[in-house]
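Colleagues,

Please find the record for the two-part complex below.
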Amino acid sequence: MTTLLTQFNETPSQTGGPYVHIGLAPRQAGFEIFENNFGNVLVQPETQGERIRIEGCVYDGTGSLLRDVLIEVWQANAAGKYAHPADRQNKPLDPAFRGWGRTGADFDTGVYTFETIKPGKVSHPDGREQAPHICLVLFARGINIGLHTRLYFEDETDANAKDPVLNGIEWVVRRDTLKARREVRDGEVVYRFDIRIQDTPDGGKETVFFDI
Amino acid sequence: MSDILLPPASGALSPDLTAHGYFGQRNSEAHPPALTPGYKTSVLRSPRNALISNFATLSEITGPVFTPAELGPKDNDLITNFAKDGLPIGERIVVHGFVRDEFGRPVKGALVEVWQANASGRYRHKKDQYLGSLDPNFGGCGRMLTDENGHYVYRTIKPGPYPWRNRINEWRPAHIHYSISGDGWVQRLITQLYFEGDPLIPHCPIIKTIPSESQIRSLIAQLDREQAVPMDSLCYRFDITLRGRRATWFENK
């Protein structure tokens, strides 16, 4: 016999507002308060994997920068394992990698960056492997509920072609909005990932957002 | 062939996922839509395409884990965590409540982060130019982890209402911003707490983005006289509900 559980409504979301930094990145708001601050550097010296920088801007429906956006990332380690007890894949944990970080876009340039490692492939529940990807969530003034997206790597051509989530996007032309561009700058690998919240009149391509 | 509408093949669910369970889908009617023209900034900051729904993978059912060692002893005391040469000015309050999932189970070890204006309605932020005065002894942010019962508590100064440019004479009700990182990435939530009896609540275009009255009520903290500290602080109670993991009742075979 099955049992029906009482179900309560999830607490409704509200915008993070323009001063989201006070709570989530107080140094950026302009003051020191916590001894330990959460930030955009996910790597320590002992962390395993290929060092990469993620960088980009977020644009609104006129193509203007969101200079007040706050972004968080969540990703697997270089072996494709998440630092969380629900990940029971038979892959090594990296004690020097948590897989999470947050940052605000620069108030002047609108650029956000993360210093991290390229994640490994993670199993999909249907038994296939997912292409390497990083989960992102965006909060800002004007955004009523956090926008979830995924960053994939343009140079993972074969893996991307087989990825179940990318293939779940019916409009093939939209899949490319999730692929970060690879550049090498002074020996450092940089992936550029711009996010367009809304199609612009000149045909700007709106980034795919997920209901996860 | 498209994969869009195929559920995970019967029998293919890995034990990795069922061990911690999937999350039920988000009830979008419990939340504001992205485009809410009464809140003007949302017009150019809302996607025009529908969100794409996916079956959850490990990427969505896991999430960052936080430990008490990462937090400082005063991180949940906004009355003293920025005090320089005295106490901040304003109404002393304690705010507490439980973080549970949609099935009523406590969410343990959730990171709850809060931020707010001071008693004047002024934020300590480079970009806030409101003429309400800054309080040299008030920072306006705090954080804590829920305990084994999902309970959290912090102490602060009740924030003042705040004028903002939406229409020209728009005022936010007194509010405290909340950010909650639960046990899985899908539970990530940012919201705002309002205070019982505030007459600005029914007029606020940000609150009115929420489609139902009962959901709006769930954001209003209630005065908790029983927990007030005599001759010291009033108390408000504010509970939070996050997405819930479903149990697996039957083998998927």
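The domain at 20-196 of chain A is CATH 2.60.130.10 (Protocatechuate 3,4-Dioxygenase, subunit A).

Comments are welcome before we finalize the supplementary table.
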